[in-house]
What we know:
Helix content: over 70%
Number of strands: 0
Number of helices: 11
Order of helices and strands: HHHHHHHHHHH
Number of domains: 2
Radius of gyration: 28 Å
Strand content: under 5%
Amino acid sequence: MNALAYLADAASAGAGSGVDPITALQNATQQAQASSGPLGAVGMVVVLTLASLLPAIVLSCTCFVRFVVVLGFVRTGIGTPSAPPNQVLVGLALFMAVFTSAPVAFEMYDAGGKAYLAGQMDEKQALEAAAPPLRAFLLRRTTEADLALFYDVSNAPRPTTVDDVPLRIAIPAFVLSELRTAFKIGLAILLPFLIIDLLAATVLTALGMVMVPPQVVALPVKLLVFVMIDGWHLVVQSLLRGAGVGA
């Protein structure tokens, strides 16, 4: 039964019992609003807002940035701009980010989401209860220098405990730390490929084949080395362990 049918039945029932239909309709409306729980009008606004912010949340509150940047460096080092395509790299980075962040998401749900859906907390209380697991996840992967940068720029007082760090400071500091970590890993990945490129160019020059692009020789060699060492497995394994699954 939809809401309109429920209100109409309540009004007709009130009229049959001798109660003013307007009063019966008002009472039925109040009962319907009270029984709607947290997923009423305000709840739907919160859900739609979170859904619209979900891409930004994934980008800024998970290790997605680290994963997608490192995977892009791997493709650049190999020298194949379109293999694997962007959709594959982004999809792999996305599911790796979901995999590493799942324990934190479950903690946030147990801390605030479950009570909110049960009607035991309002939106503000649920957000405050769900924030500590996310804050701990972000700060464990954030350097002190990046965190101090945002405190210095905002002129905010230094925190005494982890709980005193607001998310508006913890999130951008975390993203900055992830970018630094990703570029460090990317540099370590690019150096072996650069050595292969230099060796190919040196050999071709020594043989007098200066008209042959070094990439023609270096690409098969880099692919051979990468496949022999099972490079994708090593890269993904290093990223997952570096992100600290469940930590």
